[in-house]
Write a structure and sequence with these properties.
By secondary structure, this protein is of the alpha/beta class. It has helices at residues 3-20, 146-153, 173-179, 197-211, 225-238, 242-245, 421-437, and strands at residues 41-46, 51-56, 81-83, 97-100, 106-109, 120-125, 162-166, 188-190, 193-195, 217-223, 248-254, 259-260, 284-288, 290-292, 312-313, 326-327, 332-333, 366-368, 373-380, 383-390.
């Protein structure tokens, strides 16, 4: 089967299933705070949009009392982690990138990995990616599925933070397809166990906080189903508890629909955790879903509006939190046939489709094309989303377009993170410095 057929087939399967069941952006119930573990916070109201900025007291060293002595259910097994700082794994792979300027000039970037002196960790939850034939995936992560998603969506952050990426028994592509006919629900009995993807991630989070955090700040990164699971984790485990919120540097919830009241930056899914609106703001959320300027969300689009509940879907671009258009700094696989659904896409041909062969050859795993795309959070047709404009120029030697499309309902879902990876690196660098300075 060709890469194109894999992408089309997987897209159709997931679109049909999500139309019936949904895989990201769902509601998360608020949980009561635990007064015994609360610490002081200072809240300043922003009168312009009803938002709040919460500055929590410095996170203490060592495990929080609520996590001390926690006994992991599944995550003492190293095989249940895609990435950990104490393992040689996919997040320490070759991330060299070739920057292709508009005039065809090539510059190779060699990021320093892994970081060993940061105050920050990154906790990543990957999207719907497993092709296991069962409703929920097993523990065996595949390099071209779960591994390739991590390679594209979080590995580059290893230059800024220690990366923790748990394997979890997620709802699979086939599981989503079965939902169309009333099949398996996200919670499924496997042997004697009741398996819920969220409970796996909650176990991984508690294991990390009990044994690895040591008072460090945490950046949460998720995409699609991963963002949905992290939305629930924030709502139930982080948002209600000031001692846990004190560790949150920021949450990046891509390819999802985080709910806020219209005109406000806090409320809806999270009572205390606002949207990020300044580069040095911490304890906040960045969220977006991408659609082409030439192909805005359809009436039945999967993103841009809450699936349930009141309010609107939030959008704040990592390239410009305050709003307005900004050139994006994306990192894309050098092989244009590659994607998080299709894996690495086979050998990388000379030029790789991003550059005219006469202008040179790309020999790195990634490319970056400054100025090729512009992004802006917009409100159109009752939906809020990151509008992507491709600034292709037939007169220069670079490619005039990007990939990442599935169907009109999905928009540019496959490249939600790739489009802004460089902007995430820059923003997280600033947020990490602000969090460390406030300790």
């Amino acid at each position: 089967m060709s890469t194109r057929e894999i992408i089309r087939g997987s897209a159709l399967l997931v679109v049909l299933a999500l139309s019936a069941a949904g895989c990201s952006g769902g509601d998360a119930d608020d949980s009561a705070s635990n007064p015994a573990n609360e610490i002081a916070t200072t809240t300043t109201a922003a009168a312009t949009n009803g938002s709040t900025t919460t500055t929590a007291a410095a996170a203490p060293d060592g495990p929080l009392e609520r996590y001390a002595g926690y006994q992991s259910v599944n995550y003492t097994d190293p095989a249940h982690w895609l990435c950990r700082p104490d393992a040689d794994d996919i997040c320490e792979s070759d991330l060299d990138a070739t920057t292709i300027a508009a005039d065809g000039t090539l510059t190779v970037e060699d990021p320093v990995l892994p970081v060993d002196d940061s105050d920050i960790d990154c906790f990543y939850v990957y999207p719907t990616i497993s092709r296991d034939p069962t409703p929920l995936s097993d523990w065996n992560a595949a390099d071209d599925e779960e591994g390739y998603a991590a390679f594209n969506q979080v590995a580059r952050l290893s230059s800024l933070c220690r990366v923790f990426a748990p394997v979890y028994r997620q709802r699979t592509l086939s599981g989503l397809g079965a939902a169309l006919g009333g099949g398996a629900a996200p919670t499924t009995v496997v042997g004697a166990d009741v398996v819920d993807p969220y409970l796996d991630i909650l176990d991984a989070w508690k294991t990390y906080m009990a044994n690895d955090n040591g008072g460090r700040g945490v950046v949460l990164v998720g995409h699609s189903q991963g963002s949905s699971v992290l939305t629930r984790l924030i709502a139930e485990e982080i948002d209600p508890n000031a001692d846990v919120r004190a560790h949150l540097v920021a949450a990046y919830l891509a390819g999802s629909s985080v709910r806020v009241p219209e005109g406000a930056d806090v409320g809806g899914d999270f009572a205390e955790t606002p949207l990020c609106r300044a580069a040095d703001q911490t304890g906040c959320v960045v969220t977006w879903a991408s659609f082409r300027s030439t192909a805005p969300p359809t009436p039945n689009a999967l993103f841009g509006a809450p699936r349930t509940g009141d309010g609107v879907a939030a959008c704040n671009s990592p390239a410009n939190l305050a709003g307005g258009p900004a050139d994006l700094t994306g990192y894309f696989p050098a092989n244009r046939a590659a994607s998080i659904l299709a894996g690495a896409g086979g050998p990388v041909p000379d030029g790789s489709g991003w550059l005219d062969a006469a202008a040179g050859a790309v020999t790195t795993p990634y490319v970056s094309l400054p100025g090729l795309t512009t992004g802006e959070c917009v409100s159109k047709g009752g939906r809020n989303y990151l509008q992507i404009t491709v600034n292709g120029d037939p007169a220069d030697p670079r490619a005039d377009d990007i990939g990442g499309d599935l169907t009109p309902e999905w928009g540019l879902h496959l490249v939600d993170i790739s489009l802004v990876m460089g902007d995430m690196v820059k923003l997280i660098t600033t947020q990490a410095g602000a969090w460390s300075a406030a300790r």
